[in-house]
Amino acid sequence: MESLNLPEFAYKVKQVNGKPHIFDIIRRKFVTLTPEEWVRQHFIHLLITHYGYPKSLFAVETGMHYHTLAKRTDIMVLAGNALPFLLVECKAPFVKIGEATFAQISRYHFTLQPQYLAVTNGMSHYCFKAVNGQIHFLDDFPFYREEN
Q1: Which positions ≥6 away from 17 have C-beta within 8 Å?
Q2: Which of 86, 107, 121, 125 could form a disulfide linkage to 91, CB 3.0–4.6 angstroms apart?
Q3: How far is the C-alpha of 88 from the C-alpha of 108, rounded, in Å?
Q4: What is the DSSP letter of 82?
Q5: What's the CA gap between 56 and 48, in Å, rounded?
Q6: CB 144: neighbour CB atoms within 10 A?
Q7: Phi-psi bin for 146: left (phi > 0), alpha (psi -120 to 50), beta?
Q8: Which residue numbers delimit the Type I restriction enzyme R protein N-terminal domain (predicted)?
Q9: φ, ψ for residue 110 (rounded to 5)?
Q10: C-alpha pair distances (Å), 115 with each of 12, 25, 28, 82
């Protein structure tokens, strides 16, 4: 896998039926190592090690419904009250983050109403807060606080 614009971490990779799998510390199992999964695992470790989020507040690839469509969120960090706090949409490094990505996470915001939203392809990262229909881009991701 290629280097990302995210800190390195001590990952575990193994072959399963000839395909690489990476250990996911949130789901506590090896999952197929795709370019998007590579980004997801890096971003999970960034949120834990740099921003202080406890592993117990993460939900990965959680199912949800948007109108009649079944969707899956890449990374959701819950607040202490078990409501969505930060929702992260991960893309493979070669996928350009553009209007379609922002539209996708906006649909998830409509359903889940997290306080913060983020999109990343491992190379570029954007974090923002939606307030009263207005998007406010942030310079950094929110750090974990007990009152989240």
Answers
A1: none
A2: 121
A3: 10
A4: S
A5: 10
A6: 19
A7: alpha
A8: 35-142
A9: -55, -40
A10: 32, 24, 27, 12
Provide the 3-class DSSP secondary structure of residue 53. Answer: coil
Cβ-proximal residues to 8 (8 Å cutoff; 6+ apart), any chain: none
Q: Euclidean distance between the first and final Cα of the chain, in Å?
A: 34
Q: Which residue type, as a one-letter code, is found at position 20?
A: P
- Where do the domains of the chain lie, and which CATH numbers do they carry? 13-138 (3.90.1570.30)
Strand, coil or helix: what is 44? helix
DSSP reduced 3-state for 10: coil
CA dihedral over 108, 113, 117, 122, signed as positive or negative: negative
Q: pLDDT digit string (tens) for 65-104? A: 455 555 678 899 999 788 889 999 999 999 999 998 888 8
